[in-house]
Amino acid sequence: MTVNSPMATLVFDIETSAQSLENFDEAQQEYLFRECEKLADEAEKTAKRDEITRFMSLWPFTSQVVCIAMLNAETGRGQSLFVAEDFEEVPEETAPVKFIPCTDEAELLAQFWEAAKKFDSIVTFNGRGFDVPFVYLRSAILNVPISKKNWLGYRYATEPHCDLAEQLTFYSVSGRDGAARRFNLDFYCKAFGIESPKSHGVTGMDVGQLMAEGKFREIAEYCLRDVYATVELYKIWKERLAGIK
Prior knowledge:
Blueprint: E1 9-18, H1 26-32, H2 34-37, H3 42-55, E2 63-72, E3 78-83, E4 97-102, H4 105-116, E5 121-124, H5 127-142, E6 161-163, H6 164-167, H7 185-191, H8 207-212, H9 216-240
Parallel strand pairs: 1-5, 3-4, 5-6
Antiparallel strand pairs: 1-2, 2-3
């Protein structure tokens, strides 16, 4: 990824997918579904089990990173790394953003950290609460060297990490129901006149199914749309709201 600015800013987003239950032994599965066994009603028990199974894609110890899309906020150039079971070398792309298939999660994370070390700062949407700790923990589990270990530093600073979900809620100043309550990226995009990444009919909830269907490139394209939207939201924040304390 080309870096032209001495203060280059990386905007990125990840997509995750739950691991198969077969990857966990009996004790781990008992732990994961312990809450289910406390319910007497079979329908409630099944519903609770389904709920936990859905949440497994959000936990780095039960899930995996299947895509990371990233852009240089200054130049608009970047790449979308994605895991593809039917990995094949693809011709070099000349577009500003390259789609790069990886054989597995470890290779994907290694390429991500190689690109990340060239940047001084990052921008995310809810990256402090999700994306950053997720890639840190998955990298540690897979023993992939982490090139940037300062992305979860002082919360009330925008360098090196500007989390737009924190900025647009002024660090959750008004709680869940106040004037600065948190909305999702789709809602903020529509409010500020930015094309929503959900407008193409794919959401993060579809990633597991797309993986099962072998539609790896579609995941990479969806993740990239999230990043494009985040870049536009960042520009608006920087022009209109940055510096408010």
